[in-house]
Amino acid sequence: MSLKLYIDWLSQPSRFVAIVLNILKVPHEIVEIRIAEGKQRTPEYAKINPYRKVPAIVDKDGFQLAESHAIVKYIIKSRNIKTPLYPDDPQQSAKIDEYLDYHHTGTRKLSQYFFNLMVAPKLGIETTVNLEQAKKEAIFALKLLDTKFQTQDYICGKEITLADLSAYCEIMQLHMVNWDFSKYPNILNWMSRVTQIKEVNSGHEVLLKIVQKIRSKPKL
Amino acid sequence: MSNTLTLYYNPISMPSRAVLTLLTLGNVPHTAKVVDLQKQENLTPEYTAINPCQGVPALDDDGFKLFESHAILRYIVNKYQLHDFYPKDPQEIAKVECYLDWHHTGTKLVSKFVFDHIIGPKMMGRPAPPDFEAKEKEMESILQFIEYVFLGQGKFKYVQNQPKMTIADLALIFEIQMLFGFNYSFDKFPGLKNYVQHMSQVPQIKQANQAFFGMIKNAPLNDFIKGLIQ
């Protein structure tokens, strides 16, 4: 039995895990769970992940785990992988943890905006989220990172870490709503640094095809 | 151990109480400095230099600054080797981390509900959002998930069936105790009720709750809650 990774390529944390596994060359099998088709709600999937979300893993010995940040840290620890993406040094790993924790209520606001603007109407889902408020929170999160990139190349300093990969998967999604990044030049520069990693690009192939279709429409 | 840690905290802030409790449980020498949120001390340039997100808690370890309570908890565990409060096995670590990640968009909705609909209107004169019933339902579905998944339908003594209390429990308990301010009846969730009972009686957790209990002691409270805040 191999390590199985349950993902939807349209899900940001799914792409994050897939990209990290590829960069670290951890052998795994991908099982697609398409959210748009409701596959996460099947009883079979609930047995794998009671949270009914993606991503999730089932390791070789049957160990099940959800939550993208917990998953990548588990892979690194259990395989004893030494990587600058998440160093052993307590202060360096604490700084990465600081970003990864903040991400859930910080950078993820970008998804909330994106989901409520683009996806919910298409799926016929009613939400009570105030779009103007969601956009404000998205802008706040972007400004925070844009300011950071004025003085350093990556979120935690000179080297790329798990923080950048998790953030990138969220932020690039704004291309789907034709977001005007010209106001955030430092983020654009950071994105071009991150996309020099080939696994980041291959992890976004499905999405990039959709972005190209959207690029022809007017900006927000 | 030398005293290099300064913890910036607020006695009502739930993540602050979690970190304070770990420091006490681990006998870690530290200096605790209160950040007065009502006076907006967290918005001052001095505090923003310590924590650019302007929240509490934040840590300064001899110049190394850190925010986000879970990152701080892990850093303290690592630095002082507090393995009583964090597993060593990678799979058990992963289970604790899974809870800590889920917490931000799961458990935090419980305390958000209490702040938005009870503490905000009753103690801070803020208008309550319009959707009380929908938010109460959402809050209860979170409690149900905690009971069913993280407490194993009430069979686990600690989150994720760990043999001893971990930082996941410290993160969870103070959030759930905010329901005391709502005079919540925990009877719907017997596993959670048991958990709240035994965790609330841990002396170091009681100690961290003094300011919060002082705040609610004169409100109408059911006997279960009254018994736990003595």
UniProtKB/TrEMBL annotation, chain A:
Subcellular location(s): the record lists: Cytoplasm
Name the GO terms of the biological process aspect: glutathione metabolic process
Q: Which GO terms describe its cellular component?
A: cytoplasm
- Which InterPro entries does UniProt cross-reference here? Glutathione-S-Trfase_C-like, Glutathione_S-Trfase, Glutathione_S-Trfase_N, GST_C, GST_Theta
Q: Which UniProt keywords apply?
A: Cytoplasm, Transferase
Question: Where in the numbering of this chain does the GST N-terminal domain appear?
Answer: 1-83
Give start and end of each GST C-terminal domain.
Answer: 89-220
Pfam families reported for this sequence = GST_C (PF00043), GST_N_2 (PF13409)
Alphabetically, the GO molecular function entries are: glutathione transferase activity
Q: What is this protein called?
A: Glutathione S-transferase
Species this chain originates from: Paramecium octaurelia
UniProtKB/TrEMBL annotation, chain B:
Question: DNA damage: present as a keyword of the record?
Answer: no
Q: What is the lineage of its organism?
A: Eukaryota, Sar, Alveolata, Ciliophora, Intramacronucleata
Q: Which residues does the UniProt record annotate as the domain GST C-terminal?
A: 89-224
The segment(s) forming the GST N-terminal domain are: 3-84
Keywords carried by this UniProt record: Cytoplasm
MF annotations from Gene Ontology: glutathione transferase activity
Q: Which GO terms describe its cellular component?
A: cytoplasm
Q: What is this protein called?
A: Glutathione S-transferase
Q: Where in the cell is it found?
A: Cytoplasm
Primary place of residence? cytoplasm
Q: Which GO terms describe its biological process?
A: glutathione metabolic process
The answer to whether the entry has keyword Cell cycle is no
